[in-house]
Amino acid sequence: MIVTQTLPPGTKGSRQIDGIWVTDFAHACDLVTVVRAMVIMIHGYETANADRADKAGKLLDYIHTGKFADRVKGMEQGLDRLDEDLDQEMRLTPQRWKRREALHAEIRSAGVRGILLDIIELGGEIPPAACTELNAEDNSPTLPG
Prior knowledge:
Order of helices and strands: EEEHHH
Number of helices: 3
Radius of gyration: 47 Å
Low-confidence stretches: none
Largest sheet: 3 strands, mixed
Shape: rod-shaped
Oligomer: single chain
Distance between the termini: 120 Å
Strand content: 5-15%
Structural class: mainly alpha
Mean pLDDT: 83
């Protein structure tokens, strides 16, 4: 930037000639303020682009160096093991459920039937309707009415 009292012919205030700013003293502060703002803005763009390029480079390095592939492979292996566990659990659940239902019925039947037999043994009487209902539930020995 050239600041002068005598401007080139046809110049009022300031202008750019062959990439050089030429201005008079009255406009120098305004021109410096504008040029300074432009330099700061350009520096910001350059920094952002350099940072962006650096981040992109880091990302590409991460993907290409194998660390990314190791992570994906680890996730796939974990998901495969989880799928196997879920499949096995789905196959075994009906069998477990049937065993538990049978055990539940056995405990209920044996417990209630045992209590009733104990009461009978002590000399108590069981209402005929209860005996009929209990005898109908399974093939255990018939309770006295």
